[in-house]
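Support reply, case 0932

Customer input (verbatim):
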Amino acid sequence: MFSLKDKVAVVTGAASGIGRATALRFAAAGARLVLADLQDASELAGETGGLFVRTDVAREEQVGALMEAAVATYGRLDIVINNVGIGLGNELQELPEQEFDRIMGINVKGVLWGIKRAAPRMADGGVIINTSSYAGQFGFPTYGAYAASKHAVVGLSRTAALELAPRGIRVNAVCPGTIDTPMNEGPTAETEILLARHLAPLGRMGLTEEVAALFHFLASDDSAFITGAVIPIDGGMSAGIGLGIIEPLLAGAGGQIDAAAGDGSMED
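Our regenerated output:
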């Protein structure tokens, strides 16, 4: 089950985080890998028996060269994981044009070029998986440009799923919540951990290996009837308001629900 034996997979953003975990899992499942990143992923390529191609996904010609390298090396292309993304925070009214353009160039164009340049070289019945975000389904204060870019990834994924369906190429988007990656390290790490603890009903950050497991399923033939889907992997954040938020609020209010909100019962 979930075998990727002899399938050729391109994984962008492979040097760290979700991309690295996906490359390791795909290799264990039998895939032949082409790893892309601006950072050096040659050691990981050696570890997985794959090929590293340094790639700026915002540049269409470099993405085209990446896909061509996969076909030239292995003779085919079956799976593409468009995973590269950056997250920068700024209120919309303070957002510099340069920052907006950078986010859109990497997060949106990177996915667009991945689809555009992979599909003509891809075997019928191939798979494209795009990394969106929890912020691709909801707004998020101070992350307007990031949210806009990830909403765009959802739109591109759904449209590509429709356009490529006649060839049996499946396209899906995955929407991670707060995942324990280098993006969530540094000065904001404590804040991210605190937010995940309260916003995610499961009360923790997700693991890169957990996202890679979802990618693995979607890339396998076992998910052959899934396309155009937007799948959250967020510890329950998209389900609604968890007890991690409600209980502290109730405790602060002496355990009483405001009378204006009713008695808390639900009746027809």
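We compared this against your earlier run and they match. Two observations from our side: The chain has one domain: 8-240. The chain is about 40% helix and 15% strand. Please reopen the case if you see a mismatch on your end.
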